[in-house]
Amino acid sequence: MDLGDDGIALVAVCTTVDFALRTPAEQDALIASFGRYLHSLTAPVQLLVRAERLDLTTAIAELRAQAPTLPHPALRAAAGDHADFLTLLAREQDLLRRQVLLVLREPARPCGPVDGLGGPGFWATATARHTARSARPATEADRQASAIRLSRRLAEATALLAPAGITLCPLDAGQTTAVLTAACPPGSLLAPSPYLAGADQVITAPSADVTAEPARLPSA
């Protein structure tokens, strides 16, 4: 994402790990893996845990459509029962799902001294936003360098979190747009989609037929 004078950002989806079901030794290993990632940070990151409504309509429709093609009557019956259970569950409960996002951001221009690992120092990165308007405008070369740093940071995070069973998947432009759209109007009845009209687009609809004869009330 291009943030203008604030630089650029990258959003990645993180898979989750069921910590409570692990043994104490496995839990210690997970904590150590996450700790190694935290100790490797040379710039601020954001971990965002968001909840959104879970729509089972598509899953139920696919289950009912594929059930008749199953090779055994017992499997077909089980698929139908499961579809009925999901329909009842969606009707009686407000289903939610959690999504964990990792947000990485880089300033639009070099932000001064570097730390011992070759990246920008934490204080220099934190103050880059406040000095953006007084600094020279960012060039295309600066933005390309920021994009390269973001890619390197994503690769490092992927490698360090992999031992904990966490997989990172960067979002493309459409997926990022859908996530931001879902975060802005949490009560929207429309499912987030990159194909929704933008805020500056004019939405038109066919005009009503004004020549049609108005409806007549029945006589008493």
Sequence of secondary-structure elements: EHEHHEHHEH
Rg for CA atoms: 25 Å
Distance between the termini: 66 Å
Q: What's the main sheet like?
A: 4 strands, antiparallel
Average pLDDT rating = 77
Strand content: 5-15%
- Domain count: the total is 2
What is the total tally of β strands? 4
Class from helix and strand fractions: alpha+beta
Count of helix runs: 6
Shape: flat
Strand order of the largest sheet: 2-3-1-4
What can you tell me about this protein's structure?
With 220 residues, this protein is α+β, with helices and mostly antiparallel strands. It has 2 domains: 136 residues, no CATH class; 40 residues. It has 6 helices and 4 strands. Strands 2-3-1-4 form a 4-stranded antiparallel β-sheet. Helix 1 packs antiparallel against helix 5 and helix 2 runs antiparallel to helix 3. It starts with 7 loop residues before the first strand and ends in a 37-residue tail after the last helix.
SSE blueprint and pairings:
Layout: E1 8-14, H1 24-39, E2 45-53, H2 57-66, H3 73-92, E3 96-106, H4 122-128, H5 140-161, E4 168-170, H6 173-183
Antiparallel strand pairs: 1-3, 1-4, 2-3
Helix pairs in contact: 1-5, 2-3
Features:
220 residues; alpha+beta; 2 domains; four-stranded antiparallel sheet
Give a quick precis of the structure.
This protein has helices spanning 24-39, 57-66, 73-92, 122-128, 140-161, 173-183; strands at 8-14, 45-53, 96-106, 168-170. With 220 residues, it is of the alpha+beta class.
